[in-house]
Amino acid sequence: MEYSPQRPLIVAHRGSSGKAPENTLAAFRQAIDDGADMIELDVRMTRDFELVVFHDRSVHRITGRRGRIWELTLAELRRLDAGSWFGKKFSGERIPTLRQVIEMLPANVSLNIEVKTDGDRRKGHALEESLLLVLHERNFLSRAIVSSFNHTFLLRLHHVHPEVRTAVLHFPVRNITRKPSAIVKRLGAMAFTCSVAQLRTRLVDDIHSHHLTLGCYGVNTRRQLEKAMRFGVDVVITDWPAEVRKWAEHARRA
Ligand code: G3P
Ligand code: MG
After folding, report:
1. Whole-angstrom Cα distance, residue 121 to residue 43?
2. How far does residue 79's CA lie from ligand 2's centre (Å)?
3. Residue-level pLDDT at 178
4. Which residues are within 8 A (CB) of 207 and not within 5 positions of it... i.e. 6 or more apart?
5. Which residues are catalytic?
6. Which residues surround ligand 2, an ion (CB under 5 A)?
């Protein structure tokens, strides 16, 4: 997530989730084909402490079944169909593990691992340790950035593993009372990510004057991309990476 003359960096949100079922290998393959620089995915911990790629607390919206991720084992989750809801041709897509995604990525694509903790009331450090185990085992630390809306988690992760690069996600509220740069620094992070609707000159200036990276999610239309570029956003997170790349090139030429 460093500055580059080709910015904004284009991140596929849950994979190319406009074209394939979110957070599946099909969506990640599509993102690679679409030329995404980075893939964003959501990670949750199963009942047996495995890391799976899944957005919601419950499996219902995606699989039509009942149950929360932390109540189900990896084996139980792997039996579910995570693709049919999106389209018949994706039937049989499974909920992937983080390891599986890391293994299928080409060397030029990195990963934004968003850690979801909402609803999961288990105490302890299992989530941080499982994550670090996977990242170290696959020698993936330099290609990963970990983000979360849970700032307590980010702080804990930074204390125990300061070698992990992190990005702060900010809830889509209009008024940010504390300076975003102060939030990022307190958590030992390198980037601040907000929704496109939250972009304000004061926020952007504050982040950039502290030489931090600014990410923006929900960039799914040409208008939203142009807004993000006007504000000088460094990283855009989108369901449509191929289209965003095209619009960005066009805007740079204009
Ligand atoms: O990482 C940005 C974005 O993914 C945050 O929202 O709900 O899509 O995980 P959500
Ligand atoms: Mg996410």
Report:
1. 15
2. 23
3. 81
4. 180, 181, 184, 192, 213, 214
5. 13, 55
6. 42, 114
Kindly list the averaged pLDDT for each block of 10 residues, start to end, along the chain of length 254. 66 98 98 98 98 98 98 98 98 98 97 97 93 95 97 96 96 72 96 96 96 98 97 98 96 87
Domains and CATH numbers, the chain: 9-44+108-253 (3.20.20.190)
Tokens of 57: 């607390």
- List of E strands, the chain: 9-13, 38-45, 51-53, 110-115, 144-148, 166-169, 191-195, 213-217, 235-238
Q: What angle do CA 42, 43, 46 make, to 5 degrees?
A: 140
Ligand 1 mean position to 254 CA, how many Å?
A: 30
pLDDT at 175: 59
DSSP 138: T
Q: What pLDDT is attached to residue 171?
A: 80
Token output for 204? 């952007």
Please spell the DSSP secondary structure of 39-82, one letter per residue.
EEEEEEE-TTS-EEE-SSSBSHHHHS---BGGGS-HHHHHTS-S
HSE on the CB side for 116, CA within 13 Å?
21
Is the pTM higher than 0.70? The answer reads yes
Report how far residue 202's alpha carbon sits from residue 47's, in angstroms, rounded to the nearest whole number: 43
> Ligand 1 — pocket residues by CB below 6 A?
13, 40, 42, 55, 114, 147, 169, 193, 217, 237
